[in-house]
Write a structure and sequence with these properties.
With 135 residues, this protein is mostly helical. The chain has a domain of 74 residues. It contains six helices and no strands. Helix 2 runs antiparallel to helix 5, helix 3 runs antiparallel to helix 4 and helix 4 packs across helix 6. The chain is rod-shaped. Keywords: Membrane, Transmembrane, Transmembrane helix.
Amino acid sequence: MKRIFVYFILILTIIINIYLLLYWNPGKLNNDKGDYSKEVLSFTKSPYKVDKSTMLEKLSSDDKKDIEKIIKKLSAFDVETIREYFNDANEQEGIVNIFKLLKKRLLIEDYKKIEEISSKYIDIDNINKIIKKKK
């Protein structure tokens, strides 16, 4: 009797496995009716008007002097933070963070001077819009 029961269980197990492998289609049981999640990709344009690597080389000597004067007013920690933001993989976020930091640390006229010089190389209007959105 024991042997017949073991054979019966084995045959039943084999039949169920064959059914699952060959005939069972789990898609028919799904009642989502095609409501699939859609991935949204965000492609943002670069905040730079010129190539990031050559931007510093294209500065005129007067602009370099003005920037150096203004940067001397910042702490060493702030300058290093700006350097890290400049080398950030996310260019737009890095530039936004730089201008947030400059706005917080500099006098209004110094900040305006930096904006004026940077506007030749960076899309300042877009950066200011993003800063206002994040407030």
